[in-house]
Structure formats: C-alpha cells, structure tokens
Amino acid sequence: MDKMSSLVAKLHHLWITSILKQSRMTTMQSKVHLSTMPPEPVIPSKKPFKVDLVGGKCYSWCTCGHSKKQPFCDGAHKTKAQGLSPLRFVPEKDATVWLCGCKYTNNPPYCDGTHKQDFITSAPLHEQN
C-alpha cells in the first residue's frame, strides 16, 4: 500500500504541474494578446483647425489622422487605423474653437499647443491618398 500511495502522490504532483504549466501558457498567451497597443495616429496637420461649433450638436473628432474631412472623422480609421475610434463630443454652446490637428493634444479634441513641440515639428506630415 505504501508503494501505491507513493505512486498516487507522484501522479497527483505531475497532474498539478501540468495544470499549472497550461495555466501559465494561457496567461502568457493572453498577455501577448492584451499588450497589443492601438496604432499611433498620423499627423495630418501641424496646426490646429479653427471651427465654428453649434451648441448641443454631436461632433466626431478624428483621432487617427487619416480622415479626409479633418478635423472630423470620415470613418477612415475602420480600414487604416483599426483600434482607434473618433472622439465624440457635444459643446454646451455655440463657439469658435481650435481643434487639434496633430492628434497629440493632452486636451482632446482641443488644441493645447502640443504641435509646437519638437516631436511634432520634426515628424513627417501625413499625405492623404
């Protein structure tokens, strides 16, 4: 009976070890999948867009930079920048504002002057096809 207990203990250990290995492999695979970052936006303009907004109206600001209707979305992200979505916003009142053209503002959709930084001024401008 002692040999049988020893064999059962070894089998139990092997079974637990294989379960843990499978669990780690699954976790590692999901980490690889989850770590995939969305694409970086392209820079359609190194200057902001001056636009007149209507209070209460919903707008979709392009976050990917591929839209041909800058600064607003035309759906180009669906084929050219999957993983990026437009930023929908509704202004409270009618206003003339400056919307970000470089897509790297820290106050989206509004320009915060980021386009004046070296990483934007030295970057290539995206050419629409």
Can you describe what's shown?
The protein has 129 residues and is an alpha+beta fold. 32% of the residues lie in helices and 12% in strands. It has helices at 2-34, 77-80, 118-121; strands at 49-53, 59-61, 87-89, 95-99.
Uncertain runs: 24-33
Q: How are the strands of the biggest sheet laid out side by side?
A: 1-4
- Strand-residue fraction? 5-15%
From the spread of the alpha carbons, the general shape counts as elongated
User: What kind of sheet is the major sheet?
Assistant: 2 strands, antiparallel
Mean pLDDT across all amino acids: 84
The portion of residues assigned to helices is 25-40%
The total beta strand count reads: 4
The Cα radius of gyration reads 26 Å
Determine the N-to-C terminus distance.
78 Å
- What is the helix/strand order? HEEHEEH
Structural class: alpha+beta
Provide a count of the helices.
3
